[in-house]
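Changelog-adjacent note: as of this version, every example in the card shows the full chain rather than a window. The one below runs 597 residues end to end.
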Amino acid sequence: MLAAVLSFVFLMIEMHFGRIGKEVVHDYRYVKLSLECMSAISLYIAFDIFSESHQIARSARGGLYLLGFCILGMHYFSITPGMFDSETIFISRYLIFLVCFHLMVSFLAFSRSIQTQAFWHYNYALLKRFIITLLYSLTLFIGLASALFALDKLFNFQINTDYFIDLCAFIFLIFNTLFFLNGIPEDYNEFNKSIEFNKSIRIFVQFVLLPIVGIYISILYIYMVKIIVNQQLPNGWVCIPILIFSIIGVLAYLLIYPIRLNQSNRLIYMYAKYFFYILLPLLSLFFIAIIKRIMPYGITEDRYLVFMLGSWIVIISIYILISKVDNIIIIPLSLFILLSVSAVGPWGMFQLSVANQVMRLEHLLKRNHLLENGKLVKLGSQYTVSKKDAASIRSIFSYLNKRGEINAIHRWLDEKDQVKLDSAIAQNDLVYIHSIFSDLGPDENTPYELHHFFVAPDNTMQNSLLSIEGYKHISQFNCAVNDFKQKEIFNSLSIFASLKNDSLQFRVRKDSLFSIPLSEKFKTLIQYVLKTDSLKATTINASNTLRVINTASQTCIIPADSMILFCNGKKIIFNTIEFVQLNSVYHLQRVQGLLLD
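Full-length structure tokens:
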């Protein structure tokens, strides 16, 4: 319960205070703390259930709590800010631990083969309690959220949407946990008693799960016949339906376990007897598909996990087919061991995936003459990088960056660039990484030759350039190609802005639409990048310069007024100008800034 409360508190801090003023942070500390506490809920439930069912002394129980705290602490520090740039990465980092902790809850109370029936009754009780708790929580949330919505509409309370999230978090973290725990029996001997098999389970399996399994069997076997007839390799995507089919099938087997040998229900008996025989040929298709995906693109966490889950299903299938005991405790226990081993160590999915991608990157760089004598070098004029290799190199850089492993390239840089990389990592500002290979050229995923964006930090714009003298209104705009949106401005009026034919179009309040050509503006910016020497030769006072970020180098010094434009009595201050080069012609992609009129 303490973990549930702390998870709620950290989530509230992140939502209401984590992005305001001095509390602005880029390490996602409150998000990480909240997620670790969520994970701690199931971990400490597992420890308590183990302690109570095995009558562990209080001193030993305290040791378990300390062990859990250490596990969560190490996991907290293993999550880097870059991982939050990709939802799948940090979700997988937490999801694998959550699954492991839930599996511990399922088998720690009854882990011996002679306790198979008690194990089934215990997990059935947990499942039933979970479903009831979820229904109570959903009903409570819908009811209270509807009441808040009614207050907002009827009395014009202007309730912020964040409060609905607060309510949802409170109910599903605190109320949900408390209600679930209240229904767990204190005496675990109750599960050793023989109880009548619930008819509703048989109906659910027979009329819901088995038809779904039958549909998957038909689809997958027809597809397998198709690829055999056409003599082609399977699509890598086929791994997903096979995994879903396998998991549903194993779940159905677990639910009907007490009556699996009862021949009075012929359908369930036949399913329990032949399901794993039907599954094995599909698993051969599964491994061909995943290996086909790994060979050209290397190992990633997702591919590693899919491969390991397939291996686990093979092991479980063979065990069920040859074993005379059918100890179903093996199913969650073996999955827990496999996931635990896969989550840690140099053989684990995270470290092994990174090592494999670094090895692929090194091979690509050497093949394209970008890595010589262990150091990165500029691409020579006599060499070109294929679009496929350029895409792969950029993809691996992005992969390493998002996992906080970009320092793997540290040894390839010279001393100057090593300092820059260390600084970028320390500040969680890795624009520099994208500039290392600015001369790669286009890749197969990018139709344009060069992608430029000039970004002036907000504080620089506001402190050095923002002068409103002579203007009555200030408006904010942010628009992309073919993007026509209404933007709220500082004085609660409205502005419409869009990009069309390399021109910025405005309609301010009820004025007629006016257009501002920008072609010359970004051509001028390019010249500042291409002719940095001539720019340095000119006399420009420090107060009249502006440091911007761009893709050609980490930063660029340009004249301060180069991000300002005057037109029709209006003043435009840009803080972002983005454009691409296609067939030696520049095209606008996005502009962002302020309009003064």
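Structural remarks: Residues 450-596 form one domain.
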